[in-house]
Design brief:
The chain is about 20% helix and about 25% strand. The chain is of the alpha/beta class and about 850 residues long. The strands form ten sheets. It has a six-stranded mixed beta sheet, with helices on both faces. Strands 18-17-20-25-22-23 form a six-stranded antiparallel beta sheet, with no helix packed on it. α12 packs across α18. The radius of gyration is 27 Å and the shape is globular. The protein starts with a strand and ends with a strand. Bound molecules: beta-D-glucopyranose (BGC).
Length: about 850
Amino acid sequence: MMLPDATEGDATDGNAADGDATSGNAADGDAAREQAVEAALGALGLDDKARLLAGQDLWSLPALPAIGLASLVMSDGPIGVRGRRWTADDPSIALPSPTALAASWDPELARRAGRLLAQEAHRKGVHVLLAPTVNLHRSPLGGRHFEAYSEDPLLTGAIGTGYVRGVQDGGVGVTVKHFTANDAETERFTVDNRIAPRPLRELYLAPFEAIVKDAGPWGVMAAYNSVNGTTMTENTALNEGVLRGEWGFDGVLVSDWLAARSTVGGIRGGLDLAMPGPLTVYGEALAAAVRAGEVDESLVDAAARRVLRLAARVGLLAGAPPAVAAADRPAPVDGPALAREIARRSFVLLRNEVRGAAPVLPLDAPGTVALIGAAARDARILGGGSAQVFPDHVVSPLDGLRAALPAGTLRYALGADPGEELGAAGAGFALRATARDAAGRELGGERLPGGQLQWLGDLPDGVGFDELHTVETHGTFVPRVGGEHRFGTRGVGGLRLTVAGRVLFDGAGRFSPPDEKADPFEAFFGLPSEHGTVRLAAGEPVEVSLVHTVPKELQLPIQAVSFALLHGEPERDPEELIAEAVEAARTADTAIVVVGTTDRVESEGFDRTDLRLPGRQDDLVTRVAAANPRTVVVVNSGAPVELPWRDEVAAVLLAWFPGQEGGAALADVLLGRAEPGGRLPTTWPAVLSDAPVSAVSPSADGVLAYDEGLFVGYRGWDRCSAGPAYPFGHGLGYTQWEYEELSATATSAVVRLRNTGPRPGREVVQLYVSPPDDGVARPPRWLAAFASVEAAPGTSVQVTLPLSPRTFQVWNPYPNGAGEWHTIPGTYTLHTGGPAASLPLGAPLTVAAG
Ligand code: BGC
């Protein structure tokens, strides 16, 4: 990772998160901890050691009171700490999504995010956060694109390093995931990603290597997929050979949830921990394998030692000093304030045209504003799947702008509904779940965050799975608009749906038959079904109830209850909706349209099939832009979408999935109280078909060949004839910069730039390197270093960017599977200078053989 070093002017923000914040004398602490770990290990018999390597439930490990070991609890990650339960009774701070954090290009900001998450983890009794996700944006179709950082390994590694340091500063562990090459979701449990040695080392392993070496993570998570023929939970070469052997990782390797499929394969493959429990391939099965002579007990000892070390680091082993004493934890962080700051720093201003005398943004004098779009009212603040958390409040763009603009100057219009099917009941619903036994006796319950109920492995207090018979989701619904509201369900098992006293459905939920390549839970979650409409009046509460009979006959690896109450607002004529929005835009001084994806587009568990905005949103923008030349489009998505109208609108601001304070941050940036600080961490194509890499589906034999080799992201775009809509690194601010000087030595480069615009500003200095024309297969250029700088109008700032020897190395594979890093000597060219598409300053740099 690159350490910027300020030498002049207003200098840098020091964006490298350097140094570990361990307590007192770290070496003494380590030695004492290792001693306690050895003593604890020595006191354990085979059965207890094997038990310690398997989850006791979905999120935790067993306590072993005899050795003073308390139960270790893990939780997702990465934008918040969900805790054990999927409930509104246990809210979490929701930060912007990982693509947004990476768009800040600021490892120190990532470190601050990590510290907040450690604070959240302590509050929720969580010891290990299942994050960060540092797989690469190989294809824009990757379903969990929003949850990873970038298409570039250097940027991914730097942000991941900052994040891990921050979490561990607070004495909480991480699991850097998913090791490795879990870059898409299609057939994720079985896909075999075939990757040549150079791209494997230079791209996919590189962020993990940087984080292991620079941040010393206490955990790594083994991915579901295979790499080059061996599933990652059994991949001895990568787990033992590379991760532990070459990089010196001394933490725990935990399986992704349900990824461990073989007792012997796992323990020989370097996997320490099989999650979740209680049914796992470790525990009793592992002890039996040792007794049968199939597994050497020393492997179990090594894994148990690492798990005990993790427990000791987070303060769960009596007699072992934790890595961070409670008194040494960082100062408390204001969660909502940090969420808002990260959002502002992440927004990427893609386009900002002059209207009148000045660029349309910031809106110095917005006048009357037409705010348009479903996502303006119902903001999508995070991506779906295990990354989901439940904040106690969400500031939508409508909330944020309404609070910031003078009363009476804002008018809202829906414009287009991107939801193509019913979604989990949300706005207007206040719901509880009540669990009952077969006799109808109440066992327990909790408040729900929305229509989706998800009890996986952990049921509310007082509810035993054996006696559980039904769960009822019930409460009130206050419609925002009048008309024919649509209702439905999702789930397997009995479902009885009643709205305003009318039974809309009483029967069995639909599901697709289990498929051996699918997630084990896919069939269990069921398929959505619409069951009818009820005419309701705006503002008048009605009772809703969905009684679910739990399908006990399903053989699932964990105790699970999942079903959903679905809802859709009355369907309106799409033309009429657009016409209303156009009229609002026509009569306003400024039009702001918020467009976005839905949870059916960006979520864990499946990949995308295209990059189009769902519903009629493209038509909406085109028509609004034709009616108002001061049209600003805000894009609410976690990953690239096609913006076919981008040259017709005055400004485009990418707001990502902005976290709980997104709407407040949006008002700050649109109104010029803060500059949009983000730069694209990934190339945005104009159309999917231009993208150099897009395939995410394995062939019939389950293989996904990474045939493009090193040419991923801008490395691939740079050799394509089609240019992207917006290149990697692109992002405008509210001031201008002139790059004045670039000079370099073998170990560092110095860049001087001047703020030539009217406002103070922040710039991300990006330094790229191009190789000599020497016949070695390499991309036309790659990112070598970066740093954030700030400067007042008219002042210059100079930054020194260290150049790592790795910048000039390639992986040289040997025929036996090993290999080494090899410096390629020659005269390279360094490039810098925004905007990212044109890098006007260049400097030669001669590198000697190393
Ligand atoms: C995801 C992991 C997550 C785990 C636990 C898995 O399906 O791939 O990222 O940490 O579930 O929720």
